[in-house]
Amino acid sequence: MHKKSDIKSELNDLEHVRLKKMHQLKAAGEEPFPRRVSRSHYTSEAIEAFLAASEGEVVEVSVAGRLRSIRKMGKITFAHIEDAKGRLQLFFRANDVGTDQLKLFNETFDLGDFILAQGGMFKTRSGEITLRVAGFKMLAKAIAPLPAAKEEIIDGERVVHAAFANPEARYRQRYADLAVNPQVREIFRSRARIIRALREFLDQRDFIEVETPILQPIYGGAAARPFVTHHNQLHQDLYLRISFELYLKRLLVGGFERVYEIGRDFRNEGVSFKHNPEFTQLEFYMAYADYRGIMDIAEQLVAYTAEKAAGSKVIQYQGHTIDLSPPWRRLELRSAINEYAKIDIADYATADSLRKAMIAQGNEPSQSSTRGKLIDSLISNYVEPSCIQPTFLYDYPRDISPLAKSKPDDLNTVERFEGFIGGMEICNAFTELNDPFDQEQRFKEMARDYTPEDEERHPTDEDYLRAMRYGMPPNGGFGLGVDRLVMLLCDCKTIREVILFPHLRSKED
User: Fold this and answer.
1) pLDDT at position 150, please?
2) SS (H, E, C) 469-493
3) CA-CA distance, 162 to 147, in Å (whole number)?
4) Domains and CATH numbers, the chain
5) Average pLDDT for the chain
6) What is the CA radius of gyration of the chain?
7) What whole-number distance in Å separates Cα of residue 257 and Cα of residue 252?
8) Of 127, 187, 285, 365, which has the most beta carbons under 10 Å away?
9) What whole-number distance in Å separates Cα of residue 364 and Cα of residue 501?
10) 355 pLDDT exceeds 90?
11) How far is it, in rounded angstroms, from Cα 444 to Cα 438?
């Protein structure tokens, strides 16, 4: 039988010391976790108020934050606190707060504790703007000490080295990672700016933001294995969505001409430096547009977002200088594979013939893959890693693009493009099918060519076909991996760096 434990039984020696200090605070009549806080200024605002004050004017403030340093010097103590907008030095003196209060601070307050301090601003002889503390109180006692950061002065500048460098530990305890690594907090501030910029761009062009179901009776819109769940009351199996596509295009039938959604998709697949089972996607659909028009909008969207969120269309990513300014390079897929893989796919009309050509070049293609999937593997292995500068590959095989319109002169090739930056796919788009009979035929082809266990198999959605029969305007659709865009604009090597709580194996595994 599993034995339940409480927090106290799991504390180490250092945490027991801090717990004792918490009880010491209570014995002194101080609440270690008070209910209310009266803060008048952020630390940066307190400094700005002091700088703006006239000579001799006393600037009274009340600030709150986490204790980052404590230096005890007899009857005075210096400390620093940090809040969401900066850092401020605190000056405690027995003459100001009283001998008993200074002793209480020195004996019971630790690095990592949250504190409220109030008093007047002044500048020390060393020139640092400081709060002369007249009163203070504990806001939250930190029982567990944060990983210790190493500080040093280099060329006159204060440098803080990462306290929490082990990636596995950082991702499992993101709260501690954020608390001690300010550069990690900045990544997620940048992420928020990026998502805000994406919305601004689309809102300015008359797109309307909508929300579609996460729990779906039939998954679709992408080639991926779904997560399955069960609705107890309805006695119904449901799927976590792998895409927003089919629901967003239903809205085009309903009369909306430009729609988009930014939200979570879920794909029950492996993880890698660019894959997480739960990820953020932007999709938009635009009536009366085709894939070439969407190309123009896609490159403008990414360039706009980079400039708004990162300050420039020219970025640094993993040692590469990348210019996101339109126009991006455009490569027909056949030409790109011929250039990088040295195989002209036009010479191999069947899966077997293409497979033999790939084997002759030292590849080990799957024996069960369709021709389209073999072409997709050539893209992944040869073309994608070479696309460091922004590149659109266009005109894809029909059998891996069940929702895209065929080219008028080649029914086995569809009007589809993928965008690549920094050696990875960043976006995907089609001239969307709006012929319900053609769409029904595509679903039948998928059922015929793929086994039920194949994750590339796209199930038939009868309700979607019904919606199409009411009439869907010609349209172009677009999907962007938001996490990968954040990776690019923040120069992060792995997707786990840009997701606050990435999925990890259990510790036992």
Assistant:
1) 58
2) HCCCCCEEEEEEEHHHHHHHHHCCC
3) 9
4) 8-145 (2.40.50.140), 183-328+389-497 (3.30.930.10)
5) 93
6) 29
7) 6
8) 285
9) 35
10) yes
11) 10
Verdict on whether the full-model pTM lies above 0.85: yes
Instruction: Using alpha carbons, select from 335, 456, 312, 315 the residue that is nearest to residue 386.
Output: 335
Residue 7's pLDDT is 76
318 and 307 Cβ atoms separated by less than 8 Å: no
- Are residues 482 and 276 in contact, defined by beta-carbon separation less than 8 angstroms? no
Tokens of 56: 């001799």
Strands 215-216 and 475-481: unpaired
Q: What is the pLDDT of residues 110-135, one digit of tens each?
A: 999 999 999 999 999 999 999 999 99
Classify each residue of 17-46 as buried b or exposed e, where b means 16 or more C-beta atoms within 10 Å of its C-beta: ebeebbeebeeeebebeeeeeeeebbbebb
Structure tokens given for 415: 């009007």
**Mean pLDDT calculated for residue range 343-350:** 94
Cα distance between the two ends of the chain: 22
Record the tokens describing residue 260, joined without a space: 């988009």
Question: Which residues, at least 6 apart from 391, have a Cβ–Cβ distance to it below 8 Å?
Answer: 328, 329, 330, 331, 419, 420, 421
pLDDT at 322 over 60: yes
In the predicted model, what is the mean pLDDT of residues 455-459? 71
Q: How far apart are CA 420 and CA 426, in angstroms?
A: 5
Concatenated DSSP letters for 2-65? PPP--HHHH--HHHHHHHHHHHHHHHTT--SS-S-------HHHHHHHHHHSPTT---EEEEEE
User: Do 80 and 121 form a contact (C-beta atoms < 8 A)?
Assistant: no
Residues 6+ apart with CB under 8 A from 457: 223, 446, 447, 450, 451
Which amino acid is it at 21?
Answer: K
Residue 135 per-residue DSSP state: E
The tokens 């300014």 sit on which residue? 325
Say how many CA atoms lie within 13 Å of 25 toward its Cβ: 26
**Strand 391-397 versus strand 410-421 pairing type:** antiparallel
Residue 88 near residue 47 (C-beta atoms within 8 A): yes
Q: Which two tokens stand for residue 83?
A: 């809040």
Of 47, 21, 15, 33, which is closest to residue 137 (Cα–Cα)?
33
